[in-house]
Specification:
By secondary structure, this protein is of the alpha/beta class. Among the domains are: about 130 residues, Immunoglobulins (Immunoglobulin-like, Sandwich), CATH 2.60.40; about 45 residues, no CATH class; about 80 residues, Sandwich (Immunoglobulin-like), CATH 2.60.40. About 20% of the residues lie in helices and about 25% in strands. The protein is built from 15 helices and 35 strands. Strands 12-15-18-21-22-25-26-27 form an eight-stranded parallel beta barrel, surrounded by four helices. Strands 2, 4, 5, 8, 9, 10 and 11 form a seven-stranded mixed β-sheet that branches. The chain is globular, with a radius of gyration of 26 Å.
Length: about 650
């Protein structure tokens, strides 16, 4: 009978990746076509492996096995080293990019062990199957605009941020909006229960003039990018039911207000990002025109309408495809070339606003936009901004999962291979941060950060839209302070439910930890308006109260605002714009990582280096940190002395 060798701990197996010039890229998993990689495996002899094999396959294609070459054996450590060279140009062949998967096979006398990827870097050994490593090869010229990623992004829900003094006009008649004048104490219109019909026609009066008037405030936060909720003419207060893409809503100040905001923001070095809702329109639109408000013959009005093929009718006129079955949001048919080119053409919607000077687009429900649509959109947006000295406009997609190999509606998406998106909304890191800060689970955050860093192209990592709250989620302060039972309360109670003083104080402390992570991991932090002053609120629409300009002297609000301003100042360090990222250590209730403006991060190779440590737990911990620097920013009981970082309960520390 053949001997059965044990499966040793994978901590004793080293799997590394290097570029042709010797750079260690072990923690990366996406490369431009033409990059040559050297894969190296150091394997203890106690594992009993007689060979190491790379099993690799292109997404959807057959596997192929390539043995590693035995390089050397170290008698003193009883370790064997194997190497293999991988030419990504050879892998892709005639195609410019592609998604690949691979496993490591350790062939033994009695069996074969397979790598089981935990986070696309770390792995375990199993006797069969196991999760594969991901390898994304992208086009050689693929890169997000370098200007995007610096500073801070600020997400403005226009109707609720600020009232400005400029001229506004609103629709009159039967479909006129209703104005709630109580900015300081008014409650957003809400349905009887989640999912019930709601007209969303009650506005509070925020507009684009108001955003321009608050640029000094935004500059104090370090804001370089302002992301606006939809601004096009629409019936609702949220504007995700577009009425006319080529018209800025008069209630927001119309085209003059947008032009003014672009110009004034430019004086502060800020860019404006618009929300592109291109998957569906409103039924009250010039394209569908259910209520006859527009002079056009809408798709629902006549079968010979010029917009008839822009929508998918199952039975005209009452049965048609709509977003998530919501009839007021009829879904656009992008298979119709005329409809698609209305947005993606040389003079289409996307190019039109880019030529006006916006910094780019955030694409709503990107999963529901076809590959053909996204391919054309990129050509349009990049073409319209090709001559900008600061760099082309940016394209960000709303994707809630890992975008490197996302499957949506049964189709593998190629968002990050070079012909579609520049970046995505980083919902996975939000989940990781909440797992750590709310639930005390540092392991989940470690795996989330490691997997993302080992999944996305390098330029995408710098441009990830890091968020902890949006118009689609509960307010972050509420998430960190509310009891789980609170979420099950009826809307009538949630409308006025607020944290107790004790819970609010604790949630504010935890928000400092969460925001520090949000601001210092790879990507650009995106602050949802009012989170920086501790606004509260449960699910939509309770996360959309007017900004509390009247209450900024509240001690907790003022303290949080100062904290966010300190983070904005910290973001000026070159370590956070294109800087490397390396997790130095983590445990059950803490994580320590480093950002560096040079490639020598692990060896403290000089340049601008920042070390961040967050402890989410009770009691005191002592963490060895071999880095230079002193405490630049902290919260809680923190001391750094002789290479030892001592941290009290629920604390963070930034060494610089």
């Amino acid at each position: 009978m053949l001997p059965r060798f044990p499966i040793d701990s994978t901590a004793s197996i080293t799997f590394s990746k290097y570029t042709a010039d010797g750079r260690d890229v072990t923690h990366l998993g996406a490369f431009p076509k033409g990059e040559t990689l050297r894969l190296a495996v150091a394997c203890p002899r106690t594992l009993g492996a007689s060979a190491v094999v790379l099993r690799l396959w292109r997404d959807g294609c057959a596997e192929r096995d390539t043995p590693f070459e035995f390089v050397s054996g170290d008698v003193s450590t009883l370790t064997d080293t194997y190497e293999l060279t991988l030419d990504t140009a050879d892998l892709c062949g005639n195609t410019p990019s592609g998604l690949f998967y691979y496993r490591l096979l350790f062939v033994r006398r009695g069996d074969t062990l397979f790598s089981d990827s935990v986070n696309n870097v770390d792995f375990e050994l199993v006797t069969h199957g196991g999760a594969a490593f991901r390898l994304l090869i992208h086009e050689t010229d693929y890169a997000a605009p370098t200007w995007f990623g610096a500073g801070v992004m600020y997400h403005v829900f226009v109707d609720r941020f600020a009232k400005g003094e400029g001229e506004t006009t609103r629709r009159r008649g039967e479909r006129a909006p209703e104005i709630n004048p109580d900015w300081e104490g008014g409650i957003p219109q809400y349905p009887a229960y989640p999912g019930a019909h709601l007209t969303n026609h009650v506005h509070f009066g925020g507009n684009l003039w108001g955003v321009a008037e608050k640029l000094d405030y935004l500059a104090s936060l370090g804001v370089k990018v302002i992301y606006l909720s939809p601004i096009f003419e629409a019936y609702s207060n949220h504007k995700y039911d577009t009425g006319d893409y080529m018209t800025v809503d008069g209630g927001f100040g119309g085209e003059p207000a947008l032009d003014n905001l672009i110009a004034e923001a430019g004086k502060y070095g800020m860019k404006i990002i618009l929300d592109g809702v291109f998957n569906h329109t409103g039924d009250d639109s010039r394209y569908f025109n259910r209520y006859g408000i527009y002079p056009t013959v809408g798709a629902v009005q006549a079968e010979d309408s010029p917009y008839r093929q822009w929508f998918c009718f199952r039975q005209f006129p009452d049965e048609y495809e709509s977003w998530w079955g919501i009839p007021i949001l009829p879904k656009l048919n992008h298979a119709t070339e005329e409809c698609r080119h209305y947005f993606t053409g040389e003079n289409g919607v996307c190019a039109h606003y880019v030529k006006k000077g916006i910094g780019g687009w955030r694409l709503d429900v990107a999963d529901e936009l076809s590959d053909e649509f996204l391919d054309e959109l990129r050509v349009s947006v990049k073409g319209a901004s090709a001559d900008r000295p600061e760099g082309e406009a940016v394209i960000i997609g709303e994707v809630w999962e890992n975008a490197a190999d996302k499957v949506a509606y049964g189709n593998r998406r190629r968002y990050l291979q070079g012909k579609q998106l520049d970046s995505v909304m980083n919902y996975p890191v939000r989940s990781g941060i909440l797992a750590f800060i709310r639930d005390g689970d540092a392991e989940t955050l470690y795996h989330t950060l490691t997997e993302l860093y080992a999944s996305y192209p390098r330029s995408v990592l710098d441009a990830l839209m890091n968020l902890v709250g949006t118009h689609d989620t509960e307010r972050i302060l509420t998430v960190l302070g509310a009891d789980w039972d609170d979420y099950d309360r009826p809307n009538e109670e949630l409308a006025t439910l607020r944290l107790s003083p004790e819970k609010r104080q604790k949630a504010a402390r935890l928000l400092k930890l969460a925001s520090t992570l949000q601001f210092t991991v790879f990507g650009i932090p995106s602050v949802y308006y009012g989170d920086e002053v501790g606004m509260e609120g449960f699910h939509d629409p309770f996360c959309r109260f007017p900004f509390p300009w009247h209450d900024l002297d509240d001690p907790i609000r003022a303290d949080l605002l100062n904290h966010y301003r300190s983070l904005g100042e910290l973001r000026k360090s070159p370590a956070f714009h294109g800087g490397d990222f390396c997790i130095l250590s983590h445990g059950g209730d803490y994580i320590v990582y480093q950002r560096a403006a040079t490639d020598g991060i692990a060896a403290n190779g000089g340049g601008d280096t920042v070390t961040v440590a967050v402890h989410r737990g009770e009691g005191e911990i002592a963490i060895p940190v071999t880095t230079e620097g002193s405490i630049a920013l902290s919260c809680g009981e923190v001391e750094f002395k002789d290479g030892l970082l001592t941290m009290g309960a629920d604390s963070f520390c930034v060494l610089k």
